[in-house]
Write a structure and sequence with these properties.
Residues 178-190 have a biased composition (Low complexity). By secondary structure, this protein is an alpha+beta fold. Helices cover 47% and strands 11% of the residues. Strands 9-10-5-11 form a four-stranded antiparallel sheet. It has a three-stranded antiparallel sheet with strand order 2-8-7, covered by helices on one side.
Length: 759
Amino acid sequence: MSDQGNEQQPQVEVVVKAEGEQPSTSITPPPPLTATQRLKKEAEEQLKLQQARVAELARQEAAELEAATDHSRREYLLQQLERSLADDRCAQITKHMAEMILLEHKITSSLFTNWDDCFVRLERRVDELSAQQSKILDAIQGLSAQLAAAKLITPQLPLLQPKPSPPPSQPPSPPPSHAGSAHSSRSSTPSLKASVKATYAAVTAADRGPKIPAPNKFRGDDPKTDVGDWAAGTRAYLRGFVCAEQTKVATVLGLLEGSALKWATSTSSSLQQSMEDWAFGLGVDRLLQALEDRFADKERARKAADRIACLGQQRYSGTLQALFAEFEQLTSTPGLVMAPDDMLTSFCRAVPEKFVVALYSAGYKDWRSFGRPGNGGQAPYAPPVSCPPEIQQVVDQYADLMQEPFGLPNRPTKHHIELLPGAVPPTGRIYRMSLAELEELRKQLETLTSKGWIRPNTSEFGAPVLFVPKGNDEFRMCIDYRGLNKITRKSTEPLPRIDDLLDMVQGCTVFSKVDLKSGYHQIEMAEEDVYKTSFKTRYGTYEFLVMPFGLCNAPGTFQTEMHRIFRPYLDKFMVVYLDDILVFSKTAREHAEHLALVLQSLRDSHYKINREKSSFGVPSVIYLGHVISGDGLAPEAAKIVAIQEWPPPQTVRDVRSFMGLTSYYRKFVRNFSAVAAPLTNLTKKDTPFLWSLHCQLAFTRLKKALTRAPVLKLPVPTLPFILTTDASQYGIGAVLQQDDGNGLWPVEFMSKKIKTQKL
């Protein structure tokens, strides 16, 4: 017991102190109210209550008057709309609009009415269940009393009777205004959700359920939640319940919210049924299937097929287990239509390089058998070597080529910088840099100085230095030699055509790619031109003793040096484009001999290679932005992804950049010129930039065409060629094909945009 009840109320002492007297401690109680005063006070309180009641009634009267006015105005407008439909003087568009408004009003009113009916039916159902529960408890109580009287059982505590639910009060008749119906519908929604939640709570409390966590709520419009995965998880969760089918259906209804709950309500209302009766009639399986049919992603199968094709464009960066798991998920997508051979081809192309040789040699016919050994699905599997033994032996013999290059190379080829007559030495200002860039600058200067590739100087030349992010929190140091290049006499040494290089690998199945380590820095500068390479930094001026990046004639000098070294082998079993060397052969034994000749030439000329960017004895290789294999030629997946993620251009410069990248793969796209015509028109001189609907469609079509680019067959000179041409007033196109015994395969797509007057 609390002591607060025994405490006395504090008393107020009234102290009356006259001048010259001591204070009195006596308490003066207030005088009692007379009968008249009490009556007056009661009358004042009643008056206040009546005034408040009058004010409330006035507000209700104003609201009813406003609702009645709105209703009469709505009825008048509806009559006018009906007259407009029958009036021949009204325009057809006016009639259509009037009909649409009437139909919308009818549908909306029926929806609001259905909500009210559903609310009433739910309340009646709850009352019926409460009455049944009371009868059951009374029967149990009576039976217990009889058994106790017969001394068959020990009297137990009386069963708790459920609190009787209040009698169902009919919802007030909706006011004639439309707003009143809307308010009634909105107010019934929380009651409906509350009743469903109460049912779900009763289910989980009364029945024995699984120990796995309950699935999340399903809204239907959340892009992060897949309805198929949610339905599968819900089925697994409900399988652990030991309860009636209707209880499981109520559980599913309790998990719906947002768009999913609205769909269930509207579907049942259209069938003139309550949501519970409609769902109980379907059952759990059909209800979940209906949810999947309604909220399934129609593009999921297409996205899965595109993802499988994208995986087949390059080697998978993760483990074979991760690749196998992703393929399992993609190939189990509902509605996916894809040939087993296409799946196997994509999986083979995506397999990490160290598994390629062993898995190919096993001769599996489907991708699951192909990938399961490396995934631990069968017998113990030893990871294969990265390349055949004979090729690996050759690579090991030339391990000295993998060392870091340093010092000045002693070679006959040197780079010269010939200035134009009367040229003025260019100078550049020092750019501001962040703390991270300054730290990287110090490291780069120390590294280049320790290798003997740069030295301090005081030249009148001086190019600025800047850094370009690599994307992995690293920076690439670049020297802006644009001023020097303007006054330099240009070299006439051409670079080889990339198409010609790729055509050389026809019929080969084993490839090696050799990348030179800091290739430009492995060529010495001519002593008389060293001072022209000077660059300014915050820490002083330096000059290059080796050929730097950024000089206009550097590619020609480097390509000339590569031709000098590999001239006996060019186009026979190797091609070279700057510092990218490709060796190709038809067999592994033959490839080992070819690779040994190439590596020996590099050793004789004291060149070093980059082991991380090189690959040896592989069935497919990425070279110059293309995937080369025994099947043919395909675009590099990384470049295609970059094209797919390219945002819509905002300027003419953006359009030129996008067209430059896509044009590199134009031979993979049928009628490329016609498709890209709206974009190329934007790049014309004196043409204002206006991104129209035609430009957006061309932009999207190019992306889609490159995503689905076919594998081009490398031309076989001994087989006949078939050329198919086409022309229109906008352009001409052609397809070059060959038949290798398995049907026609495209070799190249060609197209050109022409002016109308040329036809």
